[in-house]
Automatic annotation (TrEMBL):
Span of the signal peptide: 1-22
This protein's UniProt keywords: Glycosidase, Hydrolase, Signal
Ranges where the Glycoside hydrolase family 2 catalytic domain occurs: 353-463
All residue ranges annotated as the Glycosyl hydrolases family 2 sugar binding domain in the record: 79-182
The protein, known as: Glycoside hydrolase family 2
Amino acid sequence: MLKKLYLSTVLFFMLSAFFAFGQDKMSWRMQPVTIHTRWAKDVNPNNPFSEYPRPQMVRSNWCNLNGLWEYTITDLQNAVPSRYEGRILVPYPLESALSGVERSLQPYQNLWYMRTFDKPVLKDGDRVLLHFGAVDWQATIYINDKEVGSHTGGYQAFTLDITEQLRRGKNRLVVKVFDPTDKGIGPHGKQVLKPGNIYYTSSSGIWQTVWMETVPADYITGFMMTPDIDKGTLNVKVNAPADASIELVASETGREVGKIGGKAGALLELPVKNMKVWSPETPFLYDLTIKLIKGDKIIDTVRTYFGMRKIAIQKDERGVDRIFLNNKPYFNFGTLDQGFWPDGLYTAPTDSALKFDIEIIKAMGFNTIRKHIKIEPARWYYYTDKLGMLVWQDLVNPNQRLRDGAKEQYEKESKETLEQLHNNPSITTWVIFNEKWGAYDQQRITEWVKTIDSSRIVNGHSGEMLYVNNELRSPSQNPWVSSDMTDVHSYPFPRNAPKLLGKARVLGEFGGIGVPVIGHLWDDLVTGWGYDGIVSPTTMQRQYKKMIDSIKVLEGLGLSGSIYTQPFDVEGEQNGLITYDRNVSKVPLSVIRSINSIVTNNVLSEAKLEQLFSIRNAAEQDSIYEEEMRKFKVGSKDSLLLRRISIFARAKNDAKTADVASNQYIESLVDPFQWHNLKFIVSFTDESKDVGFNFLLRNYQLIDSILGENIGENALLTICYNEELKPLEMSEKPNWDSSEKRILSKYGIVGHIFYLNRKAMLAVDRDIRTFVSAKNTLHERYPGSISPVDMNNDAWTVFEKSDDKGLLSTALGWVKKAISMEEENAAYIDTYANLLYKLGSKKEAISNQEKAVRLAPKEKSYLTTLSKMKEGGQTW
């Protein structure tokens, strides 16, 4: 019955090899994942993200390089590999299911990509540019095995001119990636190598579009656009050869509304006739054509767009400092969007999915998104511009440990980000630091950002004052120095920020109501968390309304903006308004919009938002589970159904159904070594009679290597304790000998080690002989299970509790072995000396104790012991 389940370690690695090495002969497929979005099925492995990747600087002559590349993972070598393991779908991160790989990149490894492409047809002087939307974290690029450039920074676009390295016909493109995530010096946002709580799975490698573009010999490399609605002009500076001229033509639906010419590199003021301003309610965008001219010839043309808007801190009619949009008070009513996806991690499954998040946030009645510690692809900002959404853009915080080089890397990446996103009218606020994560030189950094971009307001530190359950966790002095606003975080219920002259008051984060929806969880074995515990959808609706009612009151008291945490669940967090897979709304969308309307004055649409966005309500889930339970009771063996029934039954305290369903699910597993399957086996294997028990016994070490933290071993030993040792310990006359044989037979070496340690622990204060006997068996039979520290501690225990020379001699042997492993450890030598002294070898004891004192002269107890030995006194 358990034939499928009893996969050995060898079979596991055979399966891994099949997925890795077999892919180059197979078509791509998404790797298994607990939940996925509706767009996963629309991913085209031949042409993912086929849309033009840079909407604010458009040329017609381009080629998309997304698709299936070859990949391999090596140690930190520099030589270009000669062979590759399999295929990976670009631009999905290595760790994502949509990459087709779903592996974690370690700090001691390089990830290599390879593909070929045809040399474009070039006219005289044409150049070929290779663009990367983003590669996390350090990328080195090779063309035909020759290094052509590199970039460090996981969130910024970069471009290389590869013209000189191209040859006729096929060309070979290789990308080497090094990404230590949180173990390095670079900004990594919420990505960590061991995700959990508010930190999530890493996204290594290429995670945005790769593309080529053909340009003339002299071409426009970039431009900066800054609107000035008070003057009715757009200030434009075009980067191009200095001996060329520029012509700017602005248009509205094909009709020219402004035109100006000038020199490349000069600041040009483009007048806009009958100017229309941009706002979330009327996100009006103008088209702009930029032409590069030499003599009377147009040599390069790019198309872009712009919006006329102004953001500033000004006083309202009551003299209150508020955020003003286009010279009018404008309450920034937003939500905290982290930009993670269950199937693509940092990368949305499709362009439609990328757009969906902004559409549904706006439909719920928000006018602002705080993009939290992540920089999105250019098309995301295009949709915020086009659809009408204010963006508070977080800079990605420095590595929190601030290792050497971390500050410099943070400032380098931040400067690139500020320049890269300057032209998007939707971005109105830069957020520099968050909750003291890696914060340093706050005043200097805040003022530095303002010198780079004076057209936006700056939030120098969001949530440096953090309240959780009405308790201030991080009091600070002068926390908003040089900032344009005072900002607090308050969980769960909102509160106002302090009033300071010239600064708007904002609530940078609040909310976080936790509602897990079974069947829509990243880790379906975790009940989830929220800042005020886990509640039902009905309770959430009631709490959310109270919160938004409070926001309206606080607005009248001077609050100028608020950010609710959060629109979507993210991995282990179930505090979103909508589930991580974007399928279920915890509170009906129309209800959320109605509640929010008191702040944003939205006119409710007649259309039912749930139908418009294909979203179910959490309240409907009970009927779905009732139907699934009916299928289960009539004998359905669908694997995912069995998993959901197991979890749902456990949540309902239906132990019998949970046991039956979980055993059937585990029994059906073809690949139990997927992390979500391993977690299930561990979670639902409570007794030795369970289907998963023998799997745990055979594979606990491999489970530990995948899940970490001795999770497999601890699960096995918990069963051993409950079934074997606990009854033994509670017995008046325990038979340790017969139990030892049974445990060794049933649980193997790991059970025997556990038994011996437990026996010794219980005997230490009752029978020191039993303690020594159990420990000596461990020292002799399983020396690898005992560290030098344990050897020393065991020996010291015997020294303190026994005068028996035989037992003391045994303990002396233990600590002597510890010293042989760490010769200069003063603590071990001190133990050794004390044992010698108690055994009567006083001269040798004093010699060793003198050595301990020399090694640790500041340890006063060693010197005291030495004095006692020399005086012939007792040291115990």
